[in-house]
Amino acid sequence: MELFIAILVLLALIGVSNVINRTIPFAPVPLIQIALGMAVAIIPTGMHALHLEPELFFLLFIAPLLYNDGKHTPRSELWRLRAPILLLAVGLVFATVFVVGPIIHKLIPSIPLPVAYGLAAILSPTDAVAVGSLAGRIRLPKSLMHLLEGEALMNDASGLVAFKFAIAAAVTGTFSLAHAGISFLIIAIGGLAVGVVVAAVITVIRLWLRRLGLEDETMHMLLHLLTPFALYLTAEELGVSGILAAVAGGVMHAVERDRMYQLQPRPNDVANNTWSVILYLLNGLVFVILGVQIPDVIHTVWSNPAFNNAQVFGYAAIIFALLLALRFVWTYVFSKGGKMFGSGDRSEPKPSLATLAMTSLSGVRGAVTLAGAFSIPLFLESGDPFPERSLVIFLAAVVILLSLLAASIVLPLIAKSEEKEDGAQLVEMERAGQIKMMRAAIHAIHQAATTDNEAETGAVLADYDRWIRFSEANGRQWRGTRRQRKESIGIRLEAIGLEREWARRALADGRISEERAAMFMQSLDQLEMVLSRRSRLGLVLAKALIGGLTGKGPQRSMPWSQDDYEAMRKMKSQSCSAVIANGEKLGKGKDGEVSEVIEHYVQVRDKLREPTLYRRSEQKLNQEVKRDLHWLAIQAERDEVQALYERGDITREIANELRRSLRGREASVLEQE
Predict the structure, then answer these.
(1) Which of 171, 397, 459, 587 is 20 to 30 Å apart from 316, CA to CA?
(2) What is the distance between the alpha carbons of residues 637 and 642, in angstroms, rounded to a whole number?
(3) 252-310 pLDDT tens trace
(4) Could you tell me the CA-to-CA distances from 482 to 67, 387, 475, 614, 664 in Å, in that order?
(5) Whole-number Cα distances in Å, 345 to 52, 335, 349
């Protein structure tokens, strides 16, 4: 029961971390998750007893995450950047071991040389999950992100293999460089080979099942879920790299997916939605669990009188500086010939110092480093305690925190100073984002189209076609539109206040009934909730909640009748006239935006007054189906904005602007209803 509660707490912290990130956008999610994990480990909740089992951690977390990365990392970019990826994922790992290891031994003589090599090895792998979470906020160059992703796919295996040999040398007291080199090649190549073979076998099984007529997507999703674990366990049982097997299997299944899509294009919503939830949880759990472990690691050294607390923190800072300097020198040396960023063309300009600095700072250490450090045995082969085990784990934990903090604080500053986009390019980026999100909505509508909802689908597609044409036609005025949109939403909220005043007067004068007034107020509450910024949304929700609890809020929950719709149409028409007549009360000093809002109310009023072809055609539609299609499309737009932001295609500021424009479309849909 305690374990179950602990798991629930960890899962809840993942959700809390994302809520906090929306409130404090400059704080990256991994750091928030680590802080929350540390908090629950410090307070008396029993979470401090949650110990990290390295083998289980690699199986449950690292294998599926790297399998997914292998599936989604562009293969053309992996091949184009194969030389720089190998230089970082293999060359830099061993350079770190043989350069930083002896320095650690000189710096801290109580750490034997083999153990120092092991510490350097486990500090060499980078964590692409942490860097990926920074990408949307920092907008790292695309080529650099692909390089970091490819590096992270490979260097976990090379770093862990080097760590394994170093720790084995420390435990047994024997080491052979020739044997280690041959073993490394066998483990690496064998891992890739096992991944390819096992992935091919699983693909054959899936095709065989489909030929038997077993097309149940849920069952095939189960096979997908089991695949990374089968890849990892098979490779580890054969004594080769399970991590590289998971990566190779992911790449193989990406090839299979692309070929199957060409033969029989169809969306796999079950697989995509299930994987998105799993990856969301795994990515979050990695850092929350990391945070849970850190207080105990620090306390072990902090409370030991044999260590000078300030001194050991200084050691960790020096080691991190060494790792940073070596990574910078390594990328600088190999970028001189154009090799590091995959161009291979000496005539191209060399990467700037800022780009090299971003490459160096992006080498963030993560949970693989700490899990590897925890796998250090307690005793040597002779039966003596492993030398400085607690100190090694402590140094690894502090270096992880320093790398995350450095990337979070310094990377945005460098990226901003290096950013070349001028205002026009940012405007174009936002306009392109608008069109992409609306096309995602159109795609979702097409996927939901059937012969039964053909008319409703056409009506919703017509709305989006109009919105896209407006976006494409107003590209030059987009910057002004962007500023005006923010002001217009505020004025729309003021106009809703005028509509409420009209409804109260109409109720007091007996022109509308209490029931119809409640219906109308409820529609205005929905509009206000859609249009409100986060800072106002809490007040809107609180007001609705209080109204519901006290009985003063909208009480009606029954479906509307045709008479209800006609009454609402008349009330809306009259409230629009009230807003138009009192336009001077809106937006003092913002005449352009006020005119835009007044024009909107004029159009709504005129459309409601038309007896006409539009209304007759609308009456033939199933309004409930049309509404559901509209909300399906809006959700697709939200998902596309989040995807663009997570891929680094747009900044957080532009994502917020796109969401603001989406609120305007949501309001239009509500008013149509």
Answers:
(1) 171
(2) 9
(3) 888 877 666 544 444 455 666 778 788 888 888 888 988 888 888 888 888 888 888 88
(4) 40, 61, 11, 31, 12
(5) 46, 11, 9
What is the C-alpha separation between 295 and 618, in angstroms, rounded?
63
Query: What is the DSSP-derived secondary structure letter of residue 553?
Result: S
The count of residues in the chain is 673
Mean pLDDT of 556-580: 76
Contact (Cβ atoms closer than 8 angstroms) between residue 131 and residue 103? no
Residue tagged 């084995």 (tokens): 168
Residue 202 is predicted with a pLDDT of 92
Please state the rounded mean pLDDT for residues 202-212. 87
In this structure, what token pair is assigned to residue 26?
Answer: 């400059």
- What are the angstrom distances between the C-alpha of 131 and each of 63, 152, 341, 354? 18, 10, 18, 17
In sequence order, what are the residues at sequence separation of 6 or more whose Cβ sits closer than 8 angstroms to the Cβ of residue 109?
Answer: none
Dihedral angle of Cα 430, 469, 435, 143, to the nearest 10 degrees:
-70
What is the pTM (predicted TM-score) of this model?
0.72
The tokens describing 416, both together, are 């901003």
Residue 366 backbone class (left: φ over 0; alpha: ψ -120 to 50; beta: rest): beta
Q: How far is residue 472 CA from its own chain's centroid?
A: 28
3-state secondary structure 248-302: HHHHHHHHHHHHHHHHCCCCCHHHHHHHHHHHHHHHHHHHHHHHHHHHHHHHHHH
Structural domain spans, the chain: 52-418, 423-672
Euclidean distance between CA atoms 443 and 449, whole angstroms: 10
Q: Which two tokens stand for residue 75?
A: 């293969």
Strand partners of residue 379: 385
Residue 650 backbone class (left: φ over 0; alpha: ψ -120 to 50; beta: rest): beta
CA distance 649 to 145: 11
Half-sphere exposure (Cβ direction) of 259: Cα atoms closer than 13 Å: 8
- Can you name the residues that pair with 385 across neighbouring β-strands? 379
Q: What is the pLDDT of residue 249?
A: 93
CB 406 within 8 A of CB 365: no
Task: Name the average pLDDT for the chain.
Answer: 80
| Ramachandran angles phi, psi of 602, nearest 5° | -65, -45
pLDDT at 12: 92
User: Which one-letter DSSP state was computed for residue 386?
Assistant: P
State how far the Cα of 37 lies from the Cα of 397, in Å rounded to an integer.
Answer: 14
Please list the helix, strand and coil fractions of the chain in percent, rounded to the nearest 5, in that order.
Answer: 80, 0, 20
Run of H or E residues at 141: none
